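User: My instructor asked us to take a sequence, write out its structure as tokens, and then describe one feature of it. I'm not sure where to start. Here is the sequence I was given:
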Amino acid sequence: MSNLNLVHLNGLRALEAVARLGSLQAAADELGVSIGAVSQQVIKAEAQLGHPVFQRLSKGMVALEGARPMLARLTDGFRSLSEAVAIGRPRDEKLLTISVAPVFAARFLVHRLDRFTALHPDIRLRIDATTALADFVADGVDLGIRVGAGKWPGVDAELLLPQLVFPVCTPALAKRLKEPADVLAMPTIVDGRALFSWDVWLRAAGLEGRQMEVRHVFNEASLCLDAVIAGEGVMLAFQTLAAYAMKEGKLVEPFAIRAATGAGHYFVTPEGMRQPPKVKAFHAWLTGELAELQPAPAIKA
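Assistant: Let's start with the prediction itself. The structure tokens for your sequence are:
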């Protein structure tokens, strides 16, 4: 490890951050220093290494081809150091940090957390709402709830609830829907980022190949749900998205047909790591909450 004496550690951190983030400004924000300080650290590190690491362009800093293997090793190394520091720091066993998608947090979790608090008043929650899969050790996250196929690297993923999709609309609009084919004439609210389409449900309803009339497209499922609550049309929802609005009577499910997407809600924890009592407590509570979701009388794959 004598090579580490040749280049200052802060310089290596600057090189790695600029390479990963693509600009001096982004690196400065992450490192908590000024742009000028990052620039000087990069210049000094390049001088100590004896060659340039970046090409300076108007759009930012681009790593030179020959420097990329070194920069990749630096990223791996600093990630390992970050994990080591996280492991070495004492953990607050009464604070549970949960990484969840924003739509799950807003539409399902926040309406039920009072029940968890009533059962476990000694556990405080920190909800990290993000669509990215958390780096558990580096980010200090205890568990995650994710929707997908359950095949994420470096984690243990337990299926909690298979994802089923079904049309929802206001009670007023539902009066116009007597049979599944009637939905074809309804204005449709579409989630542009959904991993499923109306074809999944139309196939289950015996309407394969038919087309929907699209009124609005949003890039967020929660916004779609708000539009449907406002009476703008019908959308294809899933259990945790629509459960609270249906319970409140704002939305109804006009047909007893649900279709499986092949995805599911997963309880995600660091791979091979023993679950502490606070994680086990949340798992037991959440499993019970998801079991309460009202099933449809008929489910088709």
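For the description part of your assignment, you could build on this observation: DSSP finds twelve helices and eleven strands in the chain. Try explaining in your own words what that tells you about the chain.
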